[in-house]
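Hi F.,

I've been meaning to write this up properly since the lab meeting, where we talked about keeping a consistent format for the predictions we share between groups. The idea is simple: the sequence comes first, exactly as it goes in, then the structure tokens exactly as they come out, then a line or two of notes. No screenshots and no reformatting. I'm using this chain as the first example so we have something concrete to point to.
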Amino acid sequence: MIDVDVVLVNMDEQTAYCSDGVTRDFFEMYDAEAQPTEDPDLAIAAVVKVGDDQFILLNLTGDDAAKVH
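Output, unedited:
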């Protein structure tokens, strides 16, 4: 179980501020065709690594747009 949540996403810096007070870089981003991308304008999902074998998948689209800046 992962004890960390993403609180805020900064697309300009490609980072995620987490509930443990740590700002983490995106591990990877993916476009609408599920292909890795480095272009934040094409990204619809991002992966944030929070532990050795722990990752959080972020939906960068949808109703929770208040968290994405």
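Notes:
Residues 65-69 have pLDDT under 50 and may be disordered.
The first strand starts at residue 6 and ends at 10.

If this format works for you, I'll send the rest the same way.

G.
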